[in-house]
Design goal:
This protein is mostly helical. The protein has two domains: 251 residues, MetI-like (MetI-like fold, Orthogonal Bundle); 264 residues, Orthogonal Bundle (MetI-like fold). 75% of the residues lie in helices and 2% in strands. Helix 2 packs across helix 18, helix 13 packs antiparallel against helix 14 and helix 21 packs antiparallel against helix 22.
C-alpha cells in the first residue's frame, strides 16, 4: 500500500511539474518581472515627486494646469485622428482597386507598398526634409522658377510623412480582407438589385468593417507612439512622445516622475482606443469562408491605365524616402552639404566611425529574435492547445506591450531596473528585453494563427504510436509551426532593426544602434552619414522581405 501510495504521489507530482506546467509558470514569472513590475513601478512613480514625500497628484495636476503640456496631448490626438481619417480614406479605395482589378505592374506596386510600410517613419521625415525643406532639392528647383511652396515643417509635414508611411497598413489589411470575401455574397446582392456603389456601401464594406477598424487602430497607435517624425520635422509642434523624451532626458534637469505620469496618460489613451475598437468590432462582426474568392476584373485599356496610375502614384510617393536616401548615400559631401559627383565617402565614414552602431543593431536584434522564437513557439502552444483562464491572461500580458509606445516601454524598464537586485540600465540586455517584449506580438500572432490550422489529430496520431507528448511537440507540431513562426520572426526582426522610440531612451555610448545614429546624424547635419546608415537599414529590410517571402510561400505581410 505504501508503495502504491508513493507511486500515486509521484505521478501527481510528475503531472504537476510537467514540461508545459513548468513552461507556463516560467512565462508568468518572466511576464511579472519584465511587464507587470516595470509598468507597475512606473505607475507608482507617477504619483511621487522629488519635492514631496508620499503619494501626490502633483504631476497630473501640473499636466492639466500647464498649457504647454496638455496642448501636446491635444496635438498628438489631432495628428492621430487626421492621419487615421486620411489614410483610411486613401487606403480603402486604393485597396479595392488594387484587389478587384487587373492592374499593370501589380507585383511592383505591392513590393513598393510593403517596403514603404516596413521602413522607420523618421527616415521618411528626413527624406522629405531633404526634398521639401528650406534647402530641399525640390524646394530650390521650384523657387528658381518662381514657385513658393511654403514650409514643410510643423503639422502639415508630420501629416505628410505619416500618411505616406501608414496608408500601406490600411491597403494591405483591406486587400487581404477583400480577397477573402466569398464572391457568392456579392453575386446574391446583385441578383437582388443591389449593385455598383450601393453594393460596396451596403454589402462589401460592412463585411470587412472589422478589418478596416483594425487597420485604423494600427495607424492611430503608430502615429501616437512615434517619436522620430515629430522630433525631426515638427519644429516646435510638440506632441506627447517628444515631451516625454524631453522630460526624461532633459539636459538641464531630468524629471522621471513627471515623465512617468505622461507615460501613464499616453498608455491610458492607447488602451481606451483599443477597447473602443474591440467594442465596435465585437458588436458587428462577420465570419465567412472564401470558398470562391472574387476574380480580378479585366478593365478596358483606358480605365486600366487610369486605375494603375492612381495606385502606382501613391505607392511611388510612399517609396520616395527610400529612393532618396539610397541616392543621397552615394553623393559627395562637404560638411553638411551635398555637392556634385558620386562617392563612397559616406560609407567609409560610417564604417570607420559607426561600425559599433551597425554591429549593435544586428547583435541586439538577433538576440531578441532568438528569445522571441522560443517564447512564440512555446507561448502560442500554451495559449491555443492548453486553454485556461491563466493562459488567456498570459495572452493578454504578452500582447499588452504591442499597443504601448516604445518610449514608454523604455522608461518603464529604466524605472524598474535602474536600482535593486537586477540592474540592467546601461547594458545591452535592457535593449534586447525591450525589443523582445515590444515585437513579440508579431511572432505570437503568426504562431497562434498557424497552430489553429494544425489539426489535433496530427498530435494524437503521434502520441497513439507511443511518442511522448513533449517529444511529439518538438518533433511534429513545432516542425509544422515553423513557417508561421519564422514568418512572424522575420517581421519582428525588421521592426527591431528599425526601432528608435525605445532605443533612444535606453541606449548609452556603447549600446547605440543604427536608428539612433541616423537620428543623431540628422540633428548634427551629417546628412551623408545618415543617408548611408538609412540605406543599410533599407537593404536589410529588403533582404528580410525576401526571406519572409521564401518562408511564407509568398503570402502577404499582414
Amino acid at each position: 500500500m505504501n508503495n502504491m501510495g508513493g507511486k500515486k504521489i509521484f505521478r501527481k507530482l510528475q503531472n504537476y511539474f510537467s514540461f508545459w506546467n513548468v513552461a507556463l509558470l516560467l512565462f508568468l514569472v518572466l511576464s511579472a518581472v519584465f511587464i507587470i513590475y516595470p509598468f507597475g513601478k512606473m505607475f507608482l512613480q507617477s504619483f511621487t515627486t522629488a519635492k514631496e514625500e508620499g503619494f501626490t497628484l502633483a504631476n497630473y495636476t501640473t499636466f492639466f494646469q500647464k498649457k504647454y503640456y496638455y496642448t501636446a496631448l491635444i496635438n498628438s490626438l489631432k495628428i492621430c485622428i487626421v492621419v487615421t481619417v486620411i489614410t483610411t480614406a486613401l487606403g480603402v479605395p486604393l485597396a479595392y482597386i488594387g484587389t478587384r482589378y487587373n492592374l499593370y505592374f501589380k507585383r511592383v506596386i505591392n513590393i513598393m507598398i510593403v517596403l514603404s510600410m516596413l521602413s522607420p517613419p523618421f527616415i521618411g521625415a528626413y527624406s522629405w526634409i531633404t526634398l521639401l525643406g528650406r534647402s530641399g532639392v525640390i524646394t530650390k528647383f521650384l523657387a528658381s522658377i518662381g514657385i513658393d511652396i511654403g514650409s514643410i515643417y510643423g503639422f502639415k509635414g508630420i501629416i505628410l510623412v505619416f500618411v505616406l508611411k501608414l496608408f500601406p497598413l490600411v491597403y494591405l489589411y483591406v486587400s487581404g480582407a477583400l480577397s477573402s470575401i466569398d464572391s457568392s455574397l456579392e453575386e446574391a446582392s446583385e441578383s437582388l438589385g443591389v449593385s455598383g456603389i450601393k453594393r460596396l456601401m451596403k454589402v462589401t464594406f460592412p463585411v470587412i468593417m472589422p478589418t478596416i477598424l483594425s487597420a485604423a487602430l494600427m495607424v492611430f497607435m503608430t502615429a501616437l507612439a512615434d517619436f522620430g517624425t515629430p522630433r525631426l520635422i515638427g519644429e516646435g509642434y510638440n506632441v506627447l512622445p517628444v515631451i516625454i523624451y524631453k522630460e526624461f532626458l532633459n539636459e538641464v534637469a531630468t524629471n522621471p516622475s513627471f515623465a512617468s505620469a505622461l507615460s501613464v496618460i499616453i498608455t491610458i489613451i492607447s488602451a481606451l482606443v483599443l477597447l473602443l475598437q474591440k467594442a465596435i468590432v465585437d458588436r458587428k462582426s462577420y465570419n465567412m469562408s472564401a470558398l470562391r474568392p472574387p476574380a480580378p476584373v479585366e478593365l478596358p485599356v483606358g480605365k486600366k491605365i487610369l486605375a494603375t496610375a492612381a495606385v502606382f502614384i501613391v505607392a511611388f510617393l510612399s517609396i520616395v524616402p527610400q529612393i532618396t536616401v539610397v541616392v543621397m548615400s552615394f553623393l559627395k559631401t562637404r560638411g553638411p552639404l551635398f555637392v556634385r559627383g558620386f562617392s563612397l565617402e559616406s560609407y567609409r565614414n560610417i564604417i570607420s566611425k559607426l561600425s559599433t552602431n551597425i554591429r549593435n543593431t544586428f547583435t541586439f536584434s538577433i538576440l531578441a529574435i532568438a528569445l522571441i522564437i522560443i517564447i512564440g513557439l512555446l507561448g502560442s502552444y500554451l495559449i491555443v492547445r492548453r486553454k485556461s483562464k491563466i493562459t488567456t491572461f498570459l495572452d493578454i500580458l504578452l500582447m499588452f506591450p504591442y499597443v504601448i509606445p516604445g518610449s514608454v516601454i523604455g522608461i518603464c524598464l529604466i524605472v524598474a531596473f535602474n536600482t535593486g537586485p537586477l540592474v540592467l540600465t546601461g547594458t545591452m540586455w535592457i535593449i534586447v528585453i525591450s525589443y523582445s517584449i515590444r515585437k513579440l506580438p508579431y511572432t505570437m500572432r503568426s504562431s497562434v494563427g498557424i497552430l489553429y490550422q494544425i489539426d489535433h489529430s496530427v498530435e494524437e496520431a503521434s502520441i497513439s504510436l507511443g511518442v511522448p507528448p513533449m517529444k511529439t511537440f518538438f518533433k511534429t507540431t513545432a516542425i509544422l509551426m515553423l513557417p508561421g513562426l519564422l514568418s512572424g520572426a522575420v517581421l519582428s526582426f525588421v521592426a527591431n532593426i528599425n526601432e528608435l522610440s525605445s532605443t533612444i531612451i535606453l541606449y548609452t555610448g556603447k549600446t547605440s544602434t543604427i536608428s539612433v545614429a541616423i537620428f543623431n546624424a540628422v540633428n548634427n547635419d551629417a546628412f551623408g552619414n545618415a543617408a548611408a546608415l538609412a540605406t543599410i537599414l533599407t537593404f536589410s529590410t529588403v533582404i528580410s522581405l525576401v526571406i519572409f517571402n521564401k518562408i511564407s510561400g509568398g503570402k502577404s505581410v499582414v
